[in-house]
Amino acid sequence: MSPPDPARFRAAMGMLPTGVTIVTATGPDGPAGATANAVCSLSIEPMLMLACLDRGSRTLLAVQAANRFGISVLHAGQEQIARSFATKAPVADKWAGVAWSERDGIPAIDDALAWIASDLRDVIAGGDHVIVTGEVTGLETSEGDPLVFHGGGYRPLG
Question: What is the reported pTM?
Answer without folding.
Answer: 0.94
